[in-house]
Design brief:
Elements lengths: L1 E3 L7 H5 L4 E9 L5 E10 L5 H9 L2 E2 L2 E3 L2 E3 L1 E10 L3 H14 L2
Antiparallel strand pairs: 1-4, 2-3, 2-7, 5-6
Length: 102
């Protein structure tokens, strides 16, 4: 069970360019509930959101899986993080881009 999960930081360049996308990650969860061995399985657009997604997932904290009352590692977990600007963020990005074009 996921206990702590901060959202990823939207990359500024992607925000200005108003890019949306996703990153699918695989990772392992230790007996203490920490995330290790984070790796990208798939992303679109390739490479744009990878680092932000990896950084976010590394900070997640899980309640460890239990087997007969004993914590056990959970290998090969998979999650997909979606990056999508809200309407307000799109408006702000448009304003910021038009101000820098002048």
């Amino acid at each position: 069970m996921l206990l702590v999960a901060e959202g990823p930081v939207y990359p500024e360049l992607a925000r200005v360019q108003q890019l949306d996308g996703f990153v699918t990650l695989a990772y392992d969860v230790t007996v203490s509930g920490n995330v290790v061995n984070v790796r990208v399985i798939n992303s679109e657009p390739v490479g744009v959101f990878d680092n932000a997604a990896i950084a976010a997932v590394r900070d997640w904290q899980f309640s460890p899986m239990q087997l007969n009352g004993t914590p056990v590692p959970a290998d090969r977990q998979v999650s997909t993080l979606t990056f999508k600007l809200s309407a307000d963020e799109q408006d702000a990005a448009e304003t910021s881009a038009s101000n820098t074009d002048r």
